[in-house]
Amino acid sequence: MPFYLQQGHIPAKRHTVFKKYDGSLLYEELMSREGFSYVYSNLYHIHMPTQIANIGKFYSNKFESSFDKTHRPRHIRTSELVSAGDIISSRKLLFFNQDLNIYKSHVTENMSYIDCDDNFYKNGNYDELIYVQEGEGVIHTQLGDLKYHNGDYIIIPRGIVWKMSISKDTKILIIESVAPIETPQKYRNRVGQLLEHSPFCERDIHTPVLNEPINKSGKFLIKVRTDRGIQDIFYSKHPFDVVGWDGYYFPWKLNIDDFEPIVGSIHQPPPVHQVFQSKGFVVCSFVSRLFDFHPDAIPAPYPHSNVDSDEILFYSKGDFMSRKGIQSESISYHPMGIPHGPHPGKYEGSIGKKSTDELAVMVDTFKPLNIALDADECDDSEYPKSWVL
Ligand SMILES: [Fe+2]
């Protein structure tokens, strides 16, 4: 994030002697992007964070494409996906390309792996964006806790050790991104502050609250996501032994209800709905809003050919104004090469409407997506023909 945060206890100068009350030394860890040349935070541990006790098993994951290779619009009813388990085991891969992987996950339990005193997760290769469709709980991280609830976008940059504690079953959409997930550049000034015309500002961004450090020895499992699978690594010290940290690198969250829509006299295109940027894709939030106020405005979108984007729309809640037959948690997929637009009647029917009550998350990718095998499970094969009059 492009702002500075400080929590807990840190020394006056970085890279200097820093001691506990008992006189023992604390250990600094630098967590930084792009080598040592981009954002970073410094964490202060009770123990050296490098104390590997044992290298465990490696679980490879091979991404398998759908059996159906036809190039067509798709409607995937993700509420019907058979998904259960913890934050790792419940993930169902739906789409992937060189820049990102998109999963739906119904988290029904906390991580509980045998033969260890506690267990955690760390993504070593991707930044994660989690959209909470429904559920409640806490993301516990080395840098502090983030409570979550319906509508939260949670950004967990790679390298941070965390685990999820659910207090209610939690349905989420997950994006793993090869590049950092950031606020749109167009809404930032030269020093990174969100500009006046940004649809959200720093007050809407929630950051972790650091707890007392945990000073425990034992057998602590960190499941590390790599580009090829998951590696179990056992450490001899609890990873949440951080007494303080500071910097620009931390997990954060923003609720979709805090996204203030930008409206106009005529139809506003998707870029006004943008909420995040990354390399190879953007994320947009379609929220409840007043419609266009020109007397002859057509509020529904015009048919469009975004000739170099694949479009994913996740319908979170409400009555999506341009589509029929779509239900909550549906995903529509519109690939390059095929124009798309409102369903029959929705274009004409939108004229004169004053507002829309909808909540949807859009992911536009700049490289074609592969459809994953799990997407076949709840594919609506009649969808491509649903525009015929
Ligand atoms: Fe579109």
The N- to C-terminal Cα distance equals 48 Å
Shape: globular
Give the rounded overall mean pLDDT.
96
Radius of gyration: 22 Å
Structural class: mainly beta
User: How many extended strands?
Assistant: 24
Sheet of most strands: 8 strands, antiparallel
Distinct bound molecules: fe (ii) ion
Pick out the low-confidence regions.
Answer: none
Could you estimate the helical fraction of the residues in percent?
under 10%
- Helices and strands, in order, run as EEEEEEEEEEEEEEEEEEEEEHEEE
User: What share of the residues does DSSP label as strand, in percent?
Assistant: 35-45%
Number of helices: 1
Question: Describe it for me?
Answer:
- The chain is 1% helix and 40% strand.
- It has 389 residues and is mostly beta strands.
- The strands form five sheets. Strands 6, 7, 9, 10, 11, 12, 16 and 24 form an eight-stranded antiparallel beta sheet that branches. The protein has a six-stranded antiparallel beta sheet with strand order 5-21-20-23-18-17, with no helix packed on it. Strands 1-15-3-2 form a four-stranded antiparallel beta sheet, with no helix packed on it.
- The longest helix is centred in the C-terminal third of the chain and has 4 residues, at 346-349.
- Residues 304, 311, 334, 340 line the site of fe (ii) ion.
Task: Identify the notable features of this structure and list them briefly.
389 residues, mainly beta, eight-stranded antiparallel beta sheet, six-stranded antiparallel beta sheet, 1 helix, 24 strands, 1% helix, binds fe (ii) ion
Give a concise summary.
The protein has one helix spanning 346-349, and strands spanning 5-8, 27-32, 40-45, 52-60, 74-77, 91-96, 100-107, 118-123, 127-141, 144-148, 152-156, 162-177, 217-225, 229-237, 242-247, 252-255, 274-277, 281-286, 289-290, 310-318, 330-334, 355-356, 358-365, 370-371. The chain is an all-beta fold. Residues 304, 311, 334, 340 line the site of fe (ii) ion.
